[in-house]
């Protein structure tokens, strides 16, 4: 039997589909070739970048200082109007560049520029400050310049020997606070029942959905660590600027009176308070920096090199001198959830694969897990913890280095380490667990929508958002939560060589600063990533070693597009601005926080070990 020939309409659509596919391939390949030609022209028409014979290292962080850069599609990085990489600066790059420049004879000074820094974080900036203190030992001068200083910007600038600011600038320091939006009344008006299950008097993650204000236990706990953060900040400023603590507190709490004495001139007020050494216009600052760096470049600016470019060039110089013994560094930054997640988030499968990679690599003699997380899914946290347990069982030492926070799930995955480092202002602990489930049956009823039916068991209607909370299911969830809490206590007790009773005394969801955590036995020492790497090497009995970041390998296509992105986007650095003004971002923050929180609730058992309070400072 002869096969029937497709009709003309089908043949036409088939031809059209093939034509569209063919055109798409041609266009994509054409764009790719054009980009390659552009890169070749750049390399042929310009000299390869190099470190100047004499000049300053320019430390100019942009956006938010992070432990791990968020994933950005390489093609989007190339095509976006605003460079997505302008929104984040890698902490490790800042520290490595500073420490390498310390003994580099070509680098004669360091210039801190803070105008594009949106958020640094006290803990992270303390680690940068420690690196700058090492740099100062070389005798090289550090100068900070900006139009204006926010609180985080000023903490970084205060590490300089001299601080200059524009005559129309100011120093805005306001202290630390934790203020959240509360939705209970709004949920009541919408007839939404938010069913909460938790263990721990201080586990306040779900308070915004249960109350219209902060509970007294939460206020007590939060004010404790907030006061410690402020003490650390004000002490750092006072010591670097030769001031008394009372001077800092007076400047902040009586800024209105200070401005009144200086006719509202915030720049003069900052000088009078001893926070700034001088006021200079941009051209005057440039001239000062030309004298500092010992020359100017072809554009008439001072001779210097951006820390990102310096680090890239310096690492290529040192490549041949690298040791074969590796201390692997694995970054666990962001919310903990199941499956595979992009950089900037912690996926149980993604992170577990990196841990296995370190375990099976014979060159990796020890591992440092850099944790910067307020937690998330209890199940995902346990999957990661188990992989770390297997790593230790293989004989490789495991050291944890805590960043700004390693709380709840972040502490769950940290507790079994051979040694735990934290900064004094790291937020950790928050040993507690919770679950939540909303029901919308009352909301639907108001709209005239009702739900009814039959089931074969007493719990057949459990977990339907359009029906009231099933009481049997509610009691079962609470028991499951209590079991999860006991499991958490047991994990910490085993990892920290404490009794469950000792852990329980400092648990119940309470957040601790790194300083208090050391006193309580939750961490072993106060220090940053460098100290953690050195201690991991010591545990592995290594005298000759190098640290290496362990991360998901890029595909050849991703590598090429990333390199293209670096070449094409670099000339625009310092020009592009955030997509949204900072004021608008701040206005939208409470709603974004609530939305992200609800979207992240994906634990298969509905159990969460997360510290939402830790995300604020």
TrEMBL record:
Compartment annotation: Membrane
GO cellular component: membrane
GO BP terms: signal peptide processing
GO molecular function: serine-type peptidase activity
Domain Peptidase S49 as annotated: residue spans: 135-293, 392-542
Keyword Hydrolase carried by entry: yes
Main location per the UniProt record: membrane
Protein's recorded name: Signal peptide peptidase SppA
Organism: Dasania phycosphaerae
Gene responsible for this protein: sppA
């Amino acid at each position: 039997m002869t096969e029937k020939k497709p009709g003309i309409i089908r043949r036409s659509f088939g031809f059209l589909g093939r034509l569209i596919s063919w055109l798409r391939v041609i266009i994509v390949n054409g764009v790719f070739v054009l980009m390659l030609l552009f890169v070749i022209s750049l390399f042929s028409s310009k000299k390869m970048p190099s470190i100047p014979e004499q000049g300053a290292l320019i430390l100019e962080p942009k956006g938010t200082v992070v432990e791990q850069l968020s994933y950005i599609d390489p093609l989007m990085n190339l095509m976006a109007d605003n460079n997505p990489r302008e929104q984040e600066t890698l902490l490790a790059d800042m520290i490595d560049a500073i420490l390498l420049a310390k003994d580099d004879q070509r680098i004669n000074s360091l210039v801190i520029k803070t105008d594009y820094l949106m958020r640094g974080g006290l803990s992270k900036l303390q680690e940068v400050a420690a690196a700058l203190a090492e740099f100062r030992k070389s005798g090289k001068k550090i100068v900070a310049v900006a139009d204006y200083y926010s609180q985080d910007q000023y903490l970084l600038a205060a590490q300089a020997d001299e601080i200059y600011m524009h005559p129309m600038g100011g120093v805005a320091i306001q202290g630390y606070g934790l203020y959240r939006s509360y939705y209970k009344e709004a949920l009541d008006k919408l007839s939404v029942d938010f069913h909460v299950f938790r263990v721990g008097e201080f586990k306040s993650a779900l308070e915004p959905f249960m109350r219209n204000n902060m509970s007294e236990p939460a206020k007590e706990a939060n004010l404790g660590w907030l006061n410690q953060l402020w003490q650390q900040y004000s002490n750092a400023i006072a010591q670097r600027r030769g001031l008394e603590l009372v001077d800092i507190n007076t400047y902040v709490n009586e800024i209105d009176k200070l401005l009144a004495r200086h006719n509202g001139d915030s720049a003069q007020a900052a000088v009078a308070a001893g926070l700034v050494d001088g006021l200079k216009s941009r051209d005057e600052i440039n001239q000062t920096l030309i004298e500092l760096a010992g020359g100017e470049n072809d554009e008439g600016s001072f001779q210097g090199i951006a820390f990102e470019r310096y680090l890239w060039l310096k690492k290529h110089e040192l490549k041949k001198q690298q040791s074969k013994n590796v201390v692997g560094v694995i970054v666990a930054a962001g919310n903990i959830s199941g499956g595979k997640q992009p950089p900037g988030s912690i996926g149980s499968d993604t992170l577990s694969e990196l841990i296995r990679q370190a375990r099976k690599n014979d060159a990796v003699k020890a591992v440092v897990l850099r944790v910067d997380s307020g937690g998330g899914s209890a199940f995902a946290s346990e999957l990661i913890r188990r992989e770390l347990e297997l790593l230790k069982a293989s004989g490789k030492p495991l050291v944890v280095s805590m960043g700004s926070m390693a709380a709840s799930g972040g502490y769950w995955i940290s507790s079994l380490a051979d040694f735990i480092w934290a900064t004094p202002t790291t937020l950790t602990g928050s040993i507690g667990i919770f679950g939540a489930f909303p029901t919308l049956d009352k909301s639907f009823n108001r709209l005239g929508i009702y739900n009814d039916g039959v089931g074969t068991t007493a719990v057949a209607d459990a977990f339907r958002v359009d029906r009231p909370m099933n009481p049997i299911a509610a009691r079962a969830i609470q028991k499951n939560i209590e079991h999860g809490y006991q499991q958490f206590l047991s994990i910490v007790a085993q990892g920290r060589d404490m009794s469950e009773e000792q852990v329980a005394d400092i648990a119940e969801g309470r957040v601790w600063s790194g300083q208090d955590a050391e006193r309580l036995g939750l961490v072993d020492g106060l220090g940053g990533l460098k100290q953690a790497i050195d201690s991991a090497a010591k545990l592995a009995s290594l005298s000759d070693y190098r640290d290496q970041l362990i991360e998901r390998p890029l595909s050849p296509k991703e590598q090429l597009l990333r390199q293209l992105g670096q070449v094409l986007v670099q000339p625009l650095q310092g020009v592009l601005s955030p997509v949204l003004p900072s004021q608008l971002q701040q206005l939208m923050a409470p709603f974004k926080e609530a939305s992200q929180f609800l979207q992240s609730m994906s634990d298969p058992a509905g159990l969460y070990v997360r510290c939402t309070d830790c995300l604020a400072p």
